[in-house]
Automatic annotation (TrEMBL):
Gene3D superfamilies: Endonuclease/exonuclease/phosphatase. Residues 1206-1215 have a biased composition (Acidic residues). This is Reverse transcriptase domain-containing protein. Keywords: Membrane, Transmembrane, Transmembrane helix. Residues 512-790 form the Reverse transcriptase domain. InterPro entries: Endo/exonu/phosph_ase_sf, Endo/exonuclease/phosphatase, RT_dom. It comes from the Eukaryota.
Length: 1215
């Protein structure tokens, strides 16, 4: 069937075509429908109320056209193999039936007017798809073939029946040839039905019906087909009618050995205090009579009682309405039925009256749909707004998640270990179980040598005491609400709601398990769900992350033991480990790494870094090794027993698409993996040494000169759980650290991922060559460490680009559901923006050393987002200051400064042994700072922020000791700085507006005034345009001709004058461009050449017979010029009265007469400056009309030459 789908399914105003198709198919009781012209990008799936939609189309970058898909009833999903491969014209699925597999192909063929090349390509692909299906399996082709096969049964007896329609066209010929080759038959022509039930499309101009949508099957399968006919009542807003075929095929029964999961409890009703009180009362009454002795019996009774009473009080959690169409079904169905009736009448009789009735029915249905959608969004928006006003962040985001509608799921079949595609759902479940069984079934062992190298610590006997109710209460309070339950169906919300009643009963159970040294089996078992990592092949199981869902009560008990284990772990945790530790986060290690890079650049020391990735670190840790390690560090026996019981005999099962696999043992995988890395490096001296002093002023480097108060710190590794970064000043040192870690991982049965481990060098001459097991690691320029991008050149540009891209992605995902939702207030939108977008954009910004240009880049993005949320366009000419004022927000400059200063106070309040404080208040033990201004550092930016906020950089440490006071001080200072910045921007804008709009003084007349009417024009072109109209209107007849005559006379005179001037200039230039050669009369040959030019300098320097020399200022100027014509010499002194008229140099008085020969000057080009003597004669050798390349002035180097006399015209001169 043709769908009439839009290009996208996630628009807020989408009419929910998938929901309409779902409703129509369910009304007609269709099990599987093939869809054409879906026009949806890529491939994916979408689950509606009754059907699951699969589709395949062109890529998102291409034009949205064509596209095919399937709608499969949800009850058949278990027996359906999802589509694999396919194109925008052919898609195949596979159904498991009692008589064998059935293959269905959804087909959309090119139209009759399509190019022959596209038709040939389509039928070749269809032929290939049919050929790949085994002959012993059922085959059905369903689709819009755009072909008229006609009714010629005699010519095509094996392909056509006796009840065809019309005549055959070119596409029909192609299709029948294909059917004949593969022994297929067109079922539409084999059943005698009404003529109207054989056709599916009416031509818009001829109004004639044709048979274009066909269902084709093998000849031997035709016996399974009961009938094939058209249902014109299916109204999906398309000009094609639904063609339905009833086939006698029974689906294969799928037997589930596992029991169905318990129904989810509707904990959302807990906001009603009456319901909660009823739950507590009934729970107390039910538990008052329990008197079980063993831990297992007591747990079974407690588990069933909690679940039963919660289900009775809060009810079963039902599936939420995915959209407004389902929520408004009672109101929409009547108008849809009226529209369907009008549509059928128009199909029977396409008259004007029926068309008008159809239009009215469609308009009524559209109005009702808009009203229902509006009411739905009003209610949903009110719920989101109410949650926002009440501070219920979870409720607000649940409403936003519901607003996004049904989620589109990317589909891909799994692959076996050998790489073969698995299409059967039961075999896919077996593959999941096989994957996790292999992952968790291996029992890794730690070498005894590694364990013997760890010294025994005293046993902490106080950790064996029975847990108190206070410990249990804190563990319950630390549970995160809204999480999925384990197999028992008890959610964290129920435990927290029933805490007043459940606390003593749970405490008794915990103490009983503590003394018995074991927990019930239900608390150990895990239900594993798979989540795609959003990278890599979807068909590979290794690209999925397994999430273990455990019993909620079991997690509470494990958390009590975990708190006590933390006390043990603090004994051996190095300062460089920030994972699983209180008051530490990823920002600690990110800040440390960035500060280390800054210190090395500041003191000109190279830095080598290695970022090590461990393969499935938490899943492959040896349990036996961990338990032995706990004994080494002083774990008491009871605590060790309860920890061991959570891991021994543990079983798991995989849940995927509503199915559960068989249980399998889990023999590896723990929580306290980071304990093992604590012993990886031992006492290795390699690393980076720091000199730090915790007291004193941060901005006073002189405090580090005190040798007695300075502490030496060795920084080798930076750890956060299983993420490790190693640092050294030398390549050899880094190689030793990597070798030590590699050896330790092998001893503790861990594996380093060579592919994901990278090396980075900072200010190194050659790329580093670090290897593990003779495999060289990749050397990179940037690396994402704990979610933050670090670069070898310390530039923040790569990090900012990443953060901007991720924030823009979040902004785009919420655009249609939040920003464009007019039913949400601006306050709610801004809260969502602050929580979702800003938190993504400014992750780890506390450690940034930002330049102003980078802050401007972030601020521009911030303002663009606010303008979009507020609906402000650039045409509105609203300044940025007003945008921030309307949004009640601050600029990005203020946000960054506030985050930095608050983080600076946090680091200052850390203990003196903490690594972030040590590296902030310290420097490298070796290395020197270069002369000049250093590169921008973190503390420079902090000092800049303090000055802007009005905080004294010399006394901020005292104020930062009190966290609350420091936060208030920073907030007040940043607020004042933001006000000053806003005022300056407003004043600057006001000055600019006054400067642009300044009025012209009245005393200054406008230069563009019309001489005829006195009109003042703004520009010359305006005056010209106005003058044409003004003169045309005011001049009498004949005036135009007289004006033209005057203009022609003036133009003629100007042209004649221009010609005369050109001739005179040409003659003058010809004469002045003559070139003269100076020759030696004594036979010395040609000495030089010169060309008279309009310059005041002829010679640079001249020596006379009395030995005097005159160097002019022009001399010094020309020596500094790289002139292609050579240097210039100027004659400024003569001898005798005969040469008095040759005073032509640059020192000549302005009033002195010009030289008749060289006037106004003579320019001589030369290569070597000679010394000239006066008294010889120079004679004119020859003259050349055409300019030539200048010849050398002298062929000698510095030797004295004799220059004779030369003449020009009638002038003869002696030098």
């Amino acid at each position: 069937m043709r769908t009439g789908l839009s290009d996208s399914l996630d628009h807020i105003d989408d009419s929910r075509k998938t929901a309409i198709i779902d409703h129509e198919l369910d009304r007609l009781n269709v099990d599987i429908a093939a869809l054409q012209e879906t026009r949806l990008a890529d491939c994916g799936s979408l689950k509606e109320k009754n059907y699951t939609f699969f589709w395949h189309g062109k890529s998102a970058e291409e034009t949205r056209e064509h596209g095919v898909g399937f709608a499969v009833k949800n009850t058949l999903i278990a027996t359906t193999v999802p589509p694999t491969g396919g194109s925008e014209r052919i898609l195949a699925i596979r159904i498991s039936t009692s008589s064998g597999p059935a293959n269905l192909l959804s087909v959309y063929a090119p139209t009759l007017c399509s190019p022959p090349e596209s038709k040939d390509k389509f039928y070749e692909e269809l032929d290939t798809a049919i050929s790949t299906i085994p002959k012993n399996e059922h085959l059905f082709l369903l689709g819009d073939f755009n072909a008229r096969v006609g009714a010629d049964h005699e010519s095509w007896p094996d392909c056509l029946g006796h009840f065809g329609v019309g005549s055959m066209n070119e596409n029909g010929q192609r299709l029948l040839e294909l059917c004949c080759y593969h022994q297929l038959c067109i079922t539409n022509t084999f059943f005698q039905t009404k003529p109207l039930h054989r056709v599916s499309w009416r031509h818009p101009r001829s109004k004639r019906w044709h048979q274009l949508d066909l269902i084709i099957t093998r000849r031997e399968t035709l016996n399974f087909v009961h009938f094939t006919r058209t249902f014109h009542s299916a109204d999906c807003d398309t000009d094609h009618s639904l063609v339905l075929s009833k086939v006698k095929l029974q689906r294969r029964q799928v037997h589930h050995a596992k029991q169905k999961a318990r129904p989810r409890i509707n904990a959302s009703r807990s906001i009603n205090p009456t319901v909660t009180q009823l739950f507590l009362t009934s729970l107390d009454q039910a538990l008052s009579s329990s008197n079980q002795q063993s831990a297992v019996d007591k747990w079974n009774c407690l588990r069933d009682t909690i679940y039963d009473q919660a289900l009775a009080a809060y009810g079963k959690k039902v599936r939420k309405n995915a959209d407004w169409f389902e929520a408004s079904g009672a109101e929409m169905e009547p108008v849809i039925e009226v529209k369907r009736t009008a549509f059928l009448k128009y199909k029977d009789n396409p008259s004007t009256r029926n068309l008008e009735a159809l239009r009215k029915a469609r308009g009524k249905a559209q109005q009702t749909a808009r009203r229902c959608a509006n009411n739905y969004w009003l209610k949903l928006s009110s719920r989101i707004q109410a949650a926002s006003d009440a501070g219920d962040i979870r409720g607000m985001y649940e409403g936003i998640k519901q607003a996004t509608g049904p989620s589109i799921k990317k589909t891909a079949p799994l692959k076996s270990k050998s790489g073969e595609v698995i299409t059967d759902s039961s075999k896919q479940m077996e593959r999941w179980a096989e994957h996790y069984m292999e992952l968790y079934a291996t029992e890794n062992t730690v070498s005894e040598e590694a364990l013997n190298g760890i010294a025994n610590m005293p046993v902490m006997e106080e950790l064996d005491k029975d847990p108190t109710q206070e410990e249990l209460s804190k563990a319950i309070d630390s549970l995160a609400c809204g999480k999925a339950p384990g197999a028992d169906g008890i959610t964290p919300d129920i435990i927290q709601l029933g805490k007043p009643t459940l606390l003593p009963h749970l405490h008794d159970l915990l103490c009983l398990c503590w003394n018995e040294g074991a927990v019930p089996q239900d608390m150990r078992d895990a239900k594993i769900v798979t989540l795609y990592k959003n990278k890599g092949d979807r068909s590979d199981c290794n690209n999925y992350r397994g999430i273990s869902l455990l019993s909620t009560v079991g997690k509470v008990f494990a958390r009590v033991a975990l708190i006590r284990l933390q006390l043990l772990a603090e004994r051996v945790y190095p300062e460089t480990q920030c994972g699983f530790r209180a008051a530490r986060s990823t920002v600690d290690m990110i800040f440390t790494l960035r500060q280390l890079q800054e210190k090395c650049r500041e003191q000109r020391r190279p830095l080598y870094l290695a970022f090590v990735d461990l393969t499935k670190a938490f899943d492959l840790v040896s349990r036996d090794g961990l338990f032995k390690l706990l004994v080494k560090i002083g774990c008491p026996p009871k605590l060790l027993s309860i920890v061991t019981s959570f891991h021994n005999n543990m079983q798991g099962s995989v849940c995927c698409d509503g199915e559960t696999s068989e249980a399998f043992p889990i023999r590896s995988g723990v929580i306290f993996f980071s304990l093992l890395l604590s012993f990886a490096f031992g006492s290795s001296p390699e690393g980076v040494y720091l000199h730090s002093r915790a007291d004193g002023k941060l901005f006073n480097l002189a405090r580090l000169r005190s040798k007695t108060k300075v502490t030496s710190v060795l920084l080798r590794e930076m750890l956060f759980a299983d993420d490790a970064a190693l640092a050294s000043h030398t390549e050899t040192g880094l190689q030793q650290l990597v070798d030590r870690l590699s050896y330790a991982c092998k001893e503790f049965a861990l594996t380093i991922s060579i592919k994901k481990t990278h090396v980075m060098g900072q200010e190194v001459e050659t790329p580093s060559s670090i290897s593990i097991d003779n495999k060289t690691l990749d050397c990179v320029g940037t690396f994402t460490y704990l979610g933050s991008t670090v670069a070898s050149n310390l530039s923040l540009d790569a990090e900012l680009s990443t953060r901007l891209a991720r924030a823009a992605t979040v902004m785009a995902r919420l655009a249609k559901r939040v920003w464009s939702n007019k039913n949400l207030t601006v306050r709610t939108k801004l809260q969502v923006y602050q929580a979702c977008v800003i938190s993504t954009l400014l992750y780890s910004s506390e450690a940034w050393t930002t330049y102003t240009r980078q802050e401007k880049r972030l601020n521009s993005f911030h303002l663009r987002c606010l303008r979009r949320i507020l609906g402000i366009k650039w045409q509105d000419k609203v300044p940025n200051t007003e945008v921030l004022e309307r949004a009640h927000s601050t600029s990005m400059f203020a946000m960054l400064s506030q985050r930095r200063l608050r983080w600076l106070g946090h680091v200052h309040r850390m203990d003196s042994g903490r690594l972030p404080r040590a590296i902030l208040y310290g420097e490298l033990s070796s290395g020197s700072r270069p002369i000049g201004r250093p590169n921008l550092r973190f503390k420079d930016v902090c000092k800049r922020d303090m000055r802007q906020a009005g905080i004294d950089p010399n006394s901020w440490e005292e104020a930062a000791q009190d966290r609350s006071a420091w936060r208030q001080t920073v907030a007040a200072g940043i607020h004042r700085a933001e006000e000053r910045r806003t005022t300056l921007l407003q004043e600057k804008r006001q000055r600019r507006k006054l400067r642009v709009a300044a009025p012209t003084p009245e005393s200054v007349p406008s230069p563009f005034v019309c001489a005829n009417c006195g009109r003042d024009c703004h520009a010359r072109i305006g005056l010209l345009s106005h003058s044409r109209r003004c003169n045309k209107d005011d001049n009498p007849p004949g005036a135009v001709h007289r004006q033209l005559k005057v203009i022609i006379c003036v133009v003629s005179c100007l042209v004649g004058l221009s010609v005369i001037c050109a001739v005179v200039f040409y003659v003058y230039k010809k004469k002045r461009s003559k070139k003269y050669y100076i020759t030696d009369p004594n036979g010395g040959g040609q000495l030089a050449s010169y060309v008279p030019r309009y310059t005041q300098q002829a010679f640079d320097a001249a020596t006379f017979d009395d030995g005097s020399v005159d160097h002019t200022d022009a001399d010094e100027e020309d020596e500094n010029q790289d002139s292609p014509s050579g240097s210039l010499l100027s004659i400024s002194k003569t001898k005798g009265a005969e040469a008095s008229s040759l005073d032509c140099g640059s020192t000549r008085d302005e009033s002195s007469p010009a030289c008749p020969l060289l006037s106004p000057a003579t320019e001589v080009e030369k290569l070597v400056r000679p010394t000239m003597q006066v008294g010889s004669s120079v004679c004119l050798d020859k003259e050349v009309d055409e300019p030539a390349e200048m010849l050398p002035l002298l062929n000698g180097k510095g030797s004295q030459q004799t220059i004779g006399e030369y003449q020009e015209d009638d002038c003869e001169t002696k030098l």
